[in-house]
Design brief:
237 residues, alpha+beta, Thiol Ester Dehydrase, Chain A, ten-stranded antiparallel sheet, 4 helices, 10 strands, globular
């Protein structure tokens, strides 16, 4: 299958106080492109519900190759591979209106049975998951660990949760960005984020955020609840 392309304008509401596109909004647009590709293949919410399955994001990496500003127009190009050991790799490229590569996203998805919560190595009969066989690039998704200190507590609020009644995976980056000082975020735009999703964060629950410095401008973030890890991340400025 050919790559799916989505064209989106960068609106001011997608941007921060410096008119730079917020990382969370960029991820939401790239995931919208993924969703639209799946819908074009017949993978609608109705099909997922009938088969009691859904895609869960296991790991994602975002690399920024340039700044994205308000009033730009983005071309988002995304494609995926069939499952390898139950993991579906998806690679997305983002170009600005000058056709310059400004971001890439490497995401790893798994198909799960929504009733048993088990990962499926094969899709249910009749579901079209023929994404193609192109060899896709991959990011370095290592997350080195280090000592951490508690820095914040956040709630999985109503407005940040999705139809599964847990924190939407695109809002994890927003939570992470908000744990850094505002001056730091203004002066040092993020170059790379790697997120490893361990378990769902249920609507209304409170998450404890911990942070440690791996090296200069390179941080390890941990989100947990009563000792249970929900996500780990690496943030590079």
């Amino acid at each position: 299958m050919e790559a799916y392309v989505l064209i989106v304008p960068v609106r001011q509401i997608d941007c921060d106080c410096e008119s730079r596109m917020k990382l969370g909004d960029l991820i939401r647009y790239t995931q919208q492109a993924s969703t639209e590709q799946c819908i074009s293949m017949g993978l609608t919410n109705e099909v997922y519900e009938q088969n009691h399955v859904g895609f869960l994001l296991a790991k994602t990496s975002v690399e920024m190759h340039g700044a994205i500003y308000a009033e730009d127009i983005l071309t988002i190009r995304t494609e995926a591979n069939p499952a390898v050991r139950a993991v579906y790799n998806r690679y997305t490229e983002v170009f600005n209106k000058k056709n310059e590569l400004v971001a890439t996203v490497d995401s790893r998805w798994v198909l799960v049975n929504t009733q048993t919560k088990r990962i499926l190595r094969q899709a249910p009969e009749g579901m079209n998951l023929d994404f193609g066989s192109a060899v896709l690039p991959q990011h370095n998704v290592d997350i080195p660990k280090t000592e951490v200190q508690p820095i914040d507590k956040v709630r999985a609020s109503f407005s940040k949760c999705d139809l599964n009644r847990h924190l939407n995976n695109t809002y994890y980056v927003d939570l992470i960005c908000d744990t850094f000082p505002i001056s730091y975020m203004i002066e040092k735009p993020i170059k790379k984020v790697v997120l490893n999703y361990h378990s769902e964060i249920l609507m209304g629950s409170v998450l404890e955020i911990y942070r440690g410095e791996i090296s200069k401008d390179n941080y390890y973030i941990l989100g947990s609840q009563e000792g249970k890890k929900h996500f780990e991340a690496r943030v590079q400025f």
